[in-house]
Specification:
metal ion binding; Cytochrome Bc1 Complex, Chain A, domain 1; metalloendopeptidase activity; zinc; 4 domains; seven-stranded mixed β-sheet
């Protein structure tokens, strides 16, 4: 539709650009693109079934406009959340979002800044003309004020600059960030890419103070200068009709000032100057990684959205099948991975094409040979670019297929990705689909593109801790050690000779035709469809097969998940090491075969689950059984354990295990709680830390691996689930593929007389912390340069069916459905309901208090833990508040204690009604001071989140597989738990907090996990006097019992009973 139609809404007009957008055949949303009177372009999406409404706005300004104060754009992004003239309370937006089950975030890139949020959508079906306000309306109004009248409050200035600095420090030891910044710092000094985008205290506080710069005024000037409606794009997704969404957009966003700014462009400034190339950079990473990166200046593809040569050249360089770069380098044991990628820098500046090779130890020694092989492949492509026409045509066919059957993603992903796409040059009709579309092959353009990949334009980076010389320089912002040199003349000459000499290794060639492209895309009838999975009747006692025919998404796809159980897999750390390496060997052996399948939309994984091996295949159901059969055959029978591959993969796993302890502490700490609380006994599957697998990995030989596999295949049992466009009969055929591979493996190992193993062979159990006991476990992190400490403040809960309260009796609906309700099951549901509600209340408030107000650190999060220690069906559950900071762990714990005290009127055991409504400081407590309406809104936010519909088949399958995996088979868990949430009274929750959560409670069970920096560990108890004063009188950490020997400590605890089905499994059969 032409852009000439205008619609008047509330006296103000919006120009209709189009309401005819290309979209997937399964997409039932309505779309409209309009332009407001201030030239703000808006994509409206109406989805009557959406659970979470969302909006995202992108503005065409980012860190490239920082000027002489690096981090300015990033700091402005932070400040816009901190209050506006209409909503002056600095936490108002996030409080509104959080209380309605939502989330928000923003990101700053070199050329744009994107803000986005999601929130519970309107209740029920929204009628045209409805005037009932929704949480989305309130959120959208608050959101719009970011861009019309932000306050840049003086009271938040230091706080937000500190937040930016915390984000900088969070990633200071991250190799990804350090290498990214090194690449920027070694680019053309005249290009803004050469700058530093994150910002820190030095750039945003110290230097400006020395120069007399008022940073609050500067941030305001940046916003008023660079934030203009004509360079913004807005995407709005809601349950409301398009006309309603358009009216909201017009009313709320038309007042954003339009300064008619030109698009930000950087023409005629090369990313690398002529004197910088060709060159080689050696750099020293934090982790033990080995990579070779070869980069070239590429095309500026800003207007090439219909052809995108970089996409196809990247795909062919990344190919893993026969004839590929990777296949050739793997055969020489030089590489473990190869990828190609094109990166756009900014409008007006040519992009970059990079080939990245993950080197083996031998490959590191031969890095120049690897470089030559890369150029051999490039030279082959340059000789006849028309060879790529067939590959491009096939890629287009698969991309079109992927687009037409693309399913929905979560709301925030949709709006943020869409407004980013709107910032490009693609026409509006492709705003939701250009990422998967292209036109015919352009041979002349491909010749021009490939011609850019010349030896004298190469920027080569070798990343390794092993370097024969000395590190001559340090990068300015992150201190990364590196050395640069001009590309040696001898190597440059050899590379030019490759182009002159037409002799190529015969092993390098383009891929063959893809055999996995689906031909049958029919949707099966839904006569088998049930609302929850059903069991197939089988003769094999060692296999339990579940099935659910999809009747919601109606795409020609399926997902098959199979858990292969065996008690020996986790019987020892050595066995787990063997099993882990075996999954790597299988994946490695299948790489060439499976890559063609992946290009055709079929994916698989072989990993370790809670009971043993987990095999997962997904994609178009037409060819899915072929992939499943090949994966199982390789795992159980056909894998050839080769010495060279075992050594390479073992070495890679060992490096991964060691590198895992160099990650940020906040990424390490979630592993400790399941490790500490999983029972170490023959009938359980203990959770081990990566370092515990190292001795076992080091001892593995080819013979021991072969022996381990033979032992495992003799006694496997299987629980599997077929979901999607698969009928009951087809699910039976898939099950026969699994059974057939199990039988063949048994026969191959001369065990045809082996008795079938019963399914239930392994019972994960959780250790229970006694009531009233508070433990502490402390470790020092391995990275001596990381100054961050991290705490996980974990509270454990378990049901007590013998202690009913107003909400602990079976709710009326559940009792009527099942007169013989299991009281233990009901108690478990009630516990989960209360836990989810209190976590929902805690999460935004503890974030605001500890991060925003107290500025303890960038990472403050609350984790709901319903699966303890690997025992997913356990009755035990809990939550953890985690904080990463330079502050001492003791101090962090004290501040968490202080926050928890504010939840109710006083710490300690539950008391009668009539208790005062203030905490020890005299301030009104969170729950006592909460109005009934606010409390009901919190409950509704929890229920809405629990009952949120699956967005796609993958989410639907995972929802049911989670209930199969935990062996409770409670397929209606969310619905039943939600009913219990609605029954909770405010007094119920107050009593719950006082009994189970309050720091002073004699009934509370908790575990504090400290990961200390070397600096903190050497200082011992390092709470400063200032911090000690701030923390007040609360010092619960001093009453904790330290865990000095983990094995002895585990032996002293009782284990929970473990998972059990909510009803007799026989009741799930189709014919029951």
């Amino acid at each position: 539709m032409a852009a000439s139609t205008a619609s008047n809404v509330g006296g103000r007009s919006a120009e209709l650009i189009t309401d005819r957008l290309d979209k997937p055949v399964t997409d039932d949303r309505e779309y409209r693109v309009v332009r407001l009177r201030n030239k703000l372009e808006v994509l409206l999406a109406s989805d009557k079934n959406v659970d979470m409404a969302s909006a995202a706005l992108a503005v065409n300004v980012g860190s490239f406009r920082d000027g002489d104060t690096p981090g300015t754009a990033h700091a402005v992004e932070h400040f816009l959340f901190m209050g506006s003239e209409k909503y002056p309370v600095d936490n108002d937006f996030k409080s509104h979002i959080g209380s309605h089950g939502g989330a928000s975030n923003a990101s700053t890139s070199p050329t744009s800044t994107v803000y986005h949020f999601q929130i519970t959508a309107a209740d029920g079906e929204v009628k045209e003309g409805s005037t009932t306000p929704s949480p989305f309306y309130g959120a959208l109004d608050r959101f719009s004020q970011f861009f019309t009248s932000p306050l840049f409050l003086a009271s938040t200035l230091d706080r937000e600059i500190n937040a930016v600095d915390s984000e900088f420090k969070l990633k200071y030891q991250s190799d990804d960030r350090r290498l990214f910044q090194l690449g920027r710092s070694l680019s053309n000094p005249d290009h803004p890419y050469n700058g530093f985008s994150t910002g820190n205290l030095h750039t945003l506080r110290d230097v400006p103070a020395e120069k007399g710069i008022d940073m609050r005024a500067k941030f305001g000037d940046f916003h008023s200068t660079h934030y203009s409606a004509n360079i913004m794009k807005l995407c709005v997704l809601g349950k409301e009709p398009l006309d309603t969404l358009q009216q909201w957009a017009v009313d709320m966003f038309s007042d954003i000032p339009n300064k008619d700014l030109p698009q930000n462009r950087w023409d005629d400034i090369p990313l690398w100057s002529e004197v910088q190339l060709p060159r080689r950079v050696y750099t020293n990473p934090i982790m033990d990684i080995r990579q070779l990166r070869v980069s070239f200046p590429w095309l500026d593809e800003e207007h090439m959205y219909e052809n995108r040569p970089g996409e196809y050249v990247s795909k062919i360089l990344s190919h893993k099948g026969e004839g590929s770069l990777l296949a050739y380098l793997k055969d020489k044991s030089w590489a473990a991975s190869v990828s190609g990628e094109t990166t756009s820098i900014c409008p007006g500046t040519p992009g970059v094409l990079t080939v990245e090779v993950g080197l083996t130890e031998l490959g590191l020694e031969h890095h120049e040979d690897v470089t030559k092989i890369i150029f051999q492949y490039i030279a082959m492509l340059q000789e006849d670019p028309s060879m790529l026409a067939g590959f491009v045509a096939e890629s287009r066919q698969l991309a079109d297929l992927a687009f037409y059957y693309r399913q929905k993603t979560d709301s925030r992903t949709f709006t943020s990705s869409t407004c980013r796409r709107m910032m490009t040059q693609v026409p509006p009709k492709w705003y939701i689909g250009i990422g998967n579309r292209s036109t015919e092959f352009d041979n002349d353009l491909m010749i021009r593109a490939l011609g850019l990949l010349q030896p004298d334009k190469a920027n080569i980076t070798l990343i390794s801790q092993k370097y024969p010389g000395t590190w001559e320089q340090k990068e300015k912002w992150y201190g990364t050690e590196y050395t640069t040199e001009a590309l040696p003349e001898s190597l440059l000459a050899d590379l030019w000779d490759i182009f002159k000499n037409k002799t190529r290794p015969a092993e390098l060639h383009l891929p063959a035709e893809n055999p996995f492209i689906p031909t049958n895309l029919d949707i099966s009838n839904t006569t088998d469809a049930f609302t929850t999975p059903r069991l197939l009747r089988l003769t094999a006692p060692s296999v339990r097969s579940w099935h659910k025919k999809d009747d919601t998404f109606l795409v020609p796809k399926a997902i098959i998940t199979a858990s292969l159980h065996h008690p020996a897999i986790y019987a020892s750390a050595d066995n787990e090491a063997h099993a882990t390496l075996l999954t790597e060997l299988v994946t490695d052996a299948l790489q060439q075969y499976s890559y063609a399948a992946a290009l055709a939309g079929l994916h698989y994984s072989v990993s370790l689950g809670s009971r043993g091996f987990l095999v997962y295949v997904s994609g178009y159901n037409d060819k899915l059984p072929l992939l499943l059969d090949r994966v199982l055959a390789t795992l159980l029978r056909e894998l050839e354990v080769r010495e060279d591959r075992l050594e390479m993969l073992r070495e890679r796993l060992l490096r991964a295990c060691r590198n895992s302890e160099l990650r940020k502490p906040c990424l390490q700490i979630p592993r400790y709680e399941p490790w500490l609380l999983s029972a170490d006994c023959p009938s359980a599957s203990p959770q081990r830390l990566d370092r515990q697998l190292v001795p076992g990995l080091e001892a593995i030989t080819v013979d021991s691996m072969r022996g381990f596999r033979e032992q495992i295949v003799r006694g496997l049992s299987v629980e599997m689930y077929s979901h999607g466009n698969v009928t009951k009969d087809e699910a039976g055929n898939v099950t026969q593929i699994v059974e057939g591979n199990l039988r063949s493996a048994t026969v191959e190992h001369n065990d045809q007389d082996q008795a079938p193993r019963q399914l239930d062979v392994l019972i994960p159990r959780t250790l229970v912390i006694p009531p009233g006991v508070n433990f502490r476990y402390t470790e020092t992190i391995r990275d001596a340069a990381d100054v961050n400490n991290c705490i996980s403040y974990y509270v454990q809960l378990s049901p007590s069916p013998s202690a009913p309260s107003s909400s602990s009796a079976p709710n009326r609906t559940e009792a009527n459905e099942n007169d013989s309700v299991d009281p233990d099951l009901v108690a478990k549901r009630i516990l989960r309901a209360k836990l989810q509600l209190i976590c929902h209340i805690i999460r935004p408030r503890v974030f605001h208090q500890l991060r925003t107000t107290e500025q303890l650190g960038y990472v403050i999060r609350t984790r709901l833990i319903t699966s303890q220690g690997g025992a997913r069906g356990s009755r035990v559950c809990g939550f953890a508040i985690e904080a990463q900071s330079e502050k001492a762990c003791e101090y962090l714990e004290q501040r968490i204690d202080a926050f928890l005290v504010t939840l109710t009127s006083s710490p300690g055991a539950a008391s009668d009604e009539g208790v005062g409504s203030t905490d020890n400081s005299g301030k009104e407590s969170v729950l006592d001071g909460m109005t009934d309406a606010a409390f009901e809104a919190e409950k509704k936010g929890v229920v809405d989140k629990m009952l949120e519909k699956s967005k796609n088949m993958s989410q639907d399958s995972e929802k049911f597989w989670a209930r199969i995996r935990d062996e409770g088979y409670d397929f209606e868990q969310a619905e039943k738990d939600a009913k219990h949430v609605l029954d909770i009274t405010k007094q119920d929750l107050i009593d719950f907090v006082k009994t189970h959560i309050a720091p002073g409670s004699s009934e509370r069970s908790s575990l504090a996990i400290y990961l200390r920096s070397h600096k903190a560990a050497s200082a011992g108890q390092s709470v400063s006097e200032e911090d000690r004063t701030t923390s007040g009188q609360i010092d619960a950490s001093s009453h904790r019992i330290d865990i000095t020997d983990v094995r002895d400590w585990k032996a002293s605890l009782m284990a929970d009973v473990g998972p059990r089905p909510v009803q007799d499994v026989n009741k799930y059969f189709y014919d029951s």
